[in-house]
Amino acid sequence: MEKVKKILESDRFQYFIIGLIVLNSITIGLETSPTTMAFTGDWLYLLDEVILGIFVVELLVKLLVYRAKFFGESWNIFDLSIVLLALIPSAGNLSILRTLRILRTLRLLKNVPKLRIIIEALLKSIPSIGWIGVLVMIIFYIFAVIGTSLYGEQFPQWFGNLGASMFTLFQIMTLESWASGIARPVMEQLPNAWVFFVPFILLATYTTLNIFIAIVVNTMNELHQYDIDEEERKLKEFVHEENVELQHLLEELKAQVARIEKKVKG
């Protein structure tokens, strides 16, 4: 089992799985082309089934090797879910599930370390990002009330009620035609309206976005530092084990030398 475990965790095997995932993603994309399917449809389906079979075997071997520990890692459960979803029969009313095979591409998130770090950073940032969401909602609510009060009568299509105002503010936050589509038409009648739009953009778009980026980057740095600390810990454990083994060898060598000297003197 140890040999199998080493193979599963080796870089070559990981690169092999990554290659299969990329190849499978390409074949699934090619299946959307009627021209390609007319010439190579059967071969693409066969290749898809072979790759799926390899994924199934990989997971079965991992289950045999790691046993209960397999379910202790969230990424293994993620892999298992993706593969099990691909095994659901896609005939009849469930034919749409065949399209979900493209989700196998998500396995790259687990097999490519850099992508895995980004996803883990995003997941660990969720609590802080949630508070950013609360801050954004407060900003939206305040400006929506102000916008409805100031511009609701003249521009009911954008600020007629609280819901319409919040949707308009969302469009402004995304910077989608905010100037030519909303701000400038309002400013044609109310030149001082820029006092409303500019602070909102600065608060809701640039400030909030920078805070979001800062949180994610900080979390990524923490994960990176954790990886470094973990590598240092493993290195120290290895050095300690080697020192202990070396100490035992030295003691055995001293004992052998002592026995030899005793025989020589005897």
Automatic annotation (TrEMBL):
Major subcellular site: membrane
Topology of the protein relative to the lipid bilayer: Multi-pass membrane protein
Domain Ion transport: 13-225
Transmembrane segments: 12-31, 43-65, 77-97, 129-151, 158-174, 194-217
Coiled coil: 236-263
Alphabetical UniProt keywords: Coiled coil, Membrane, Transmembrane, Transmembrane helix
Cellular compartment(s): Membrane
PANTHER family: SODIUM CHANNEL PROTEIN 60E, VOLTAGE-GATED CATION CHANNEL CALCIUM AND SODIUM
UniProt-recorded name of the protein: Ion transporter
Organism of derivation: Imperialibacter roseus
